[in-house]
Amino acid sequence: MATLPPPPSGINLDDDRRASIMVTSIVTWCLAVLVVGLRIVSRRLKNIDLWIDDWLIIAALIPSCAHVFGMGVYAVSRGLGRHVWAGPPDARYAWAVGLFIAELGYFVTIACVKWSILAFYYRSFKIRSSVKLPIFTLAVIVLMWAVGVILVTILQCQPTNAWWERFNPTHPLQPDQYKCTVDSVKFFYGNAIPTIVTDILILVLPLPYITKLQLPRGQKWALAGIFLVGLFVTIVSIVRLHYLLQGNLTSPDITWNFVNIALWSVVEGNTAIFCACLPFLRPILSKFTFGIFSLSSLPSKKQPSSGTRGTLRMSYYQKDGPRPWQGDSRFVTTTSHSRAYSVTHTRETDEHPFAQLTDDGSEHSIPIKERQDDSQIELGNVSPVRGPVEPNGIVVTREFHLQHQEVQIQDV
C-alpha cells in the first residue's frame, strides 16, 4: 500500500467540502441542460432548423457531463473534498482517475462552446467578408489548443494508466515502471492562459460590426451587452487560474488542496454553455411576454366614421394568434393621390440575423425607394365614405394579412 507522511499539525481532519463540490457540479450542469433545451424550443418557435452552432452546444453537454461525473461524483464519493488522511485508502487513486476524465471533458466542452459561438458569428455576419478571416483564425487556434492539451493529458505518463496506477493503494506502480515527464502545475497554467486569451478575443470580435448596425444607440448597447454576457465566463476562468496559482499540487493532501480548482473548473464549463445560449432565448421570452400582454394590446373594433380618408388595418399572424400592427401614416390613402409601398415579411431564419435588424426582428414596412428588391403592393385610390353609413349599405374595407411569407389582400 502506498504510504502517506503523517498529517501536519494544525489541520482539522473533520473538514469536509464534498457536499459543496457535488451540489455545485450537478446544479450548474442541470442549468446548462435547461438553457440548451430552451434554446432548442426557441428555435422551434421561430420555425428555424438547428444549425452547426446549435449542434455544437448540444454536443458540449456530453463532455461536460463526463467532467461533472469525474470530479463531482466519482472523485467526491471516494474522498475528494476531505483531507487525504481522513479519506478512504484509495482517495488519491480516485482523484487521479476523476481528474483524467474531468480534464478530457473540460477541454472538449470549452472547445465545443467556443466553436459554437464562432459558428454563430459566421452565420450572423457572413455577408461581411472582413469577418470571415478572424472567425476562421480563432477556430483554428481553438482546434490547435484542444488537440494539444488532449494529447498532453493522454501522454503525460507512459504508460497512460500510470497517471492513476501510481496511487493504487494495494499494487502501486514502482518508479522504474513508469515515466511521467509533464509538470502538472505548468500544464495547468498552459491550458488556462490560452483559454482566457481566446475568450477575450471571441468577446471583442463582433463589437466593431455591432457599432456599424443601423440601430438606435440604446439597442446597440443592449445587443453588445448580450454578447458581453460571456465576460462572466472569462471572469470564472481568471478565478480558476488564481486558485491554480495558489494551490499546492505537489502536496500529499491533494484531495483537499484541489477542491477550489475542481469547483471552478466545473463552474467554468457549465456556465460557458449557459452564457452561450442566452442570446437565443429571446423568442421564448417574447412569447411569454406577448401571451401576458396580448389581450390588452389588441385594438377594439370600431365602426368606420365619415370623413375624407380611408385607412388600412394590417396585422400578421403567429401560431398563438394575431398580433396587431400599430399602423403607419404612410399607409393612409386619399382620393387625390396614391402611393406605392413595399411590405416586407422577413422569413424566420437566422441566415443573416444582423443584416438588418428591427425592433421585433421579424416584420417591418419601408418605402419602395429604400428597398427596391421587395414585392410591392400598389395602394390605389380608396373611395372615402361620404356622410353617415346607411344601415343596409355596403362598406368596403381592405385588410392585409402577412402570413407564411405571403401577402394576401382580402376585400370584405
Q: What level of helicity do the residues show?
A: 40-55%
Query: Mind telling me which CATH architecture of the largest domain this is?
Result: Up-down Bundle
Radius of gyration: 30 Å
Distance between the termini: 91 Å
Which fold name is given in CATH as the topology of the largest domain?
A: Rhopdopsin 7-helix transmembrane proteins
Q: For the largest beta sheet, what order do the strands appear in spatially?
A: 4-3-8-9
Tell me what portion of residues adopts beta-strand conformation.
Answer: 5-15%
Would you state the CATH class of the largest domain? Mainly Alpha
| Residue-averaged pLDDT | 74
Structural class, please? alpha+beta
Shape: elongated
Would you count the extended β strands for me?
A: 9
Q: What is the H/E string?
A: HHHHEHEHHHHHHHEEEEEEE
List keywords for this structure.
412 residues, alpha+beta, 2 domains, 9 strands, 10% strand, elongated, disordered C terminus, transmembrane helix
Account of the protein in words:
- The longest helix has 35 residues.
- This protein is an alpha+beta fold and 412 residues long.
- The chain has 2 domains: 270 residues, Rhopdopsin 7-helix transmembrane proteins; 112 residues, no CATH class.
- Helix 2 runs antiparallel to helix 11, helix 3 packs antiparallel against helix 4 and helix 9 runs antiparallel to helix 11.
- The strands form 3 sheets. A 4-stranded mixed sheet has the order 4-3-8-9, with no helix packed on it. The protein has a 3-stranded antiparallel sheet with strand order 6-5-7, with no helix packed on it.
- Keywords: Membrane, Transmembrane, Transmembrane helix.
- Belongs to the SAT4 family.
- It is a multi-pass membrane protein.
- This is Satratoxin biosynthesis SC1 cluster protein 4.
